[in-house]
Amino acid sequence: MDKELIVIPCSGIGKPYGEISRQAVYELLEDIRPEQVETVCLGRLMIRDPEVLEKLQNGFVITVDGCAKDCALKNVEATGKKVDKAVRTLEVFKEHRDLKPEGVLNLGEAGYTLAHYLAEKLSGEVECLAKEE
Ligand code: SF4
């Protein structure tokens, strides 16, 4: 791909489903598609870091949010960039309702399994965007 593919999770502090969104993006970046995908810090986006803004404008962007407040999606859109795909952790939870995370600091086996399924879903979205290019 010529265009960079950037996947941005919400910060997710204090909420298990936000933490799952971050863990899923780490797995995507480190294990599933390390050559293809990168991320940026949501905090740098919020302070309008010029380097981050330029990266977003020139790349495909997928956001991953832990709840309906959609912090990652809204922060990207506030810069004027339209996201290519917005994903919520709860979409995956609806398909695996038996997997309930234990807590924020320790997601437990169920929470990490959910993060793994979310990472696979994100990998599928990356593949779709790569085909579009
Ligand atoms: S989308 Fe929800 S979980 Fe994520 S940072 Fe915002 S409030 Fe927290």
Describe the structure.
- With 133 residues, this protein is an alpha/beta fold.
- The chain has one domain.
- Helices cover 52% and strands 13% of the residues.
- It is built from six helices and four strands.
- Bound molecules: iron/sulfur cluster.
- The site of iron/sulfur cluster has 12 residues, from helix 1.
- Iron/sulfur cluster (SF4) binds next to helix 1.
Question: How would the blueprint of this fold be written?
Answer:
Elements lengths: L4 E5 L6 H17 L4 E2 L3 H5 L3 H8 L2 E6 L5 H7 L7 E4 H7 L12 H25 L1
Parallel strand pairs: 1-2, 1-3, 3-4
Bound molecules: iron/sulfur cluster.
The site of iron/sulfur cluster has 12 residues, from helix 1.
- Give the strand content: 5-15%
Number of beta-strand segments = 4
Which distinct ligands sit in these coordinates? Answer: iron/sulfur cluster
Number of helical segments with 4 or more residues: 6
* Shape, principal axes of CA atoms: globular
Estimate the mean pLDDT confidence. 94
Oligomer: single chain
Quickly give the structural class.
alpha/beta
Intertermini distance: 7 Å
Q: What is the strand arrangement across the widest sheet?
A: 2-1-3-4
The whole-angstrom Rg is 14 Å
Which segments are poorly predicted (pLDDT under 50) over 5 or more consecutive residues? none
Query: How is the main sheet built?
Result: 4 strands, parallel
Task: Give the helix level as a range of percent.
Answer: 40-55%
